[in-house]
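hiii so um. not sure if this is the right channel but i have a protein structure encoded as tokens and i wanna go backwards to a sequence. like what aa goes where. can anyone help
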């Protein structure tokens, strides 16, 4: 039996774009993709290997990411044959903020680093940039609270409909 990913309707070009996207964007992107895959399986457990194939990454990356989600009560793992990862919360009530916070993610702060600690100009710039980063992160967290996993699933379904007529690539 061939297991398929939600991405089963994506063309080779879209899969390639998704691969680039996931590589550029931390555990948050991996987590969202995995959670959407699980949401579309309607309660059927999903293995780390299956999720890794859908994400075009290594199963270890999936397991590390899922551990943070498990600790926050968003997913659970079922051992044994037929086991795997399962959602613990309804996608319609699980916000992207919930996922972001579960992973302990934060925006990079490199722009505010001080290369020459004795330089007052660098200290002033670093302080200002850190303040901006903090404000941007607060705004990001607020915005993430406005979207749910179900919202992403709905967008995925619309994209699948839009690309229905193309020859599609099956992954995993």
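sure thing!! here u go:
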């Amino acid at each position: 039996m061939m297991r398929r990913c939600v991405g089963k309707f994506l063309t080779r070009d879209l899969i390639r774009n998704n691969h680039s996207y996931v590589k550029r964007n931390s555990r948050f992107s991996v987590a969202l993709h995995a959670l959407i895959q699980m949401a579309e399986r309607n309660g059927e457990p999903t293995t780390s290997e299956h999720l890794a194939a859908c994400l075009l990454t290594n199963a270890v990356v999936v397991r590390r990411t899922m551990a943070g989600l498990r600790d926050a009560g968003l997913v659970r793992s079922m051992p044994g044959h037929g086991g795997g990862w399962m959602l613990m919360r309804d996608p319609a009530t699980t916000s992207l903020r919930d996922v972001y916070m579960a992973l302990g993610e934060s925006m990079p702060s490199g722009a505010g680093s001080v290369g020459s600690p004795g330089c007052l100009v660098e200290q002033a710039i670093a302080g200002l940039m850190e303040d901006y980063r903090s404000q941007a992160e607060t705004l990001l967290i607020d915005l993430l609270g406005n979207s749910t996993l179900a919202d992403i699933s709905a967008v995925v379904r619309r994209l699948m409909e839009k690309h229905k007529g193309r020859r599609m690539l099956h992954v995993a």
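oh and Residues 120-144 form the longest helix (25 residues).
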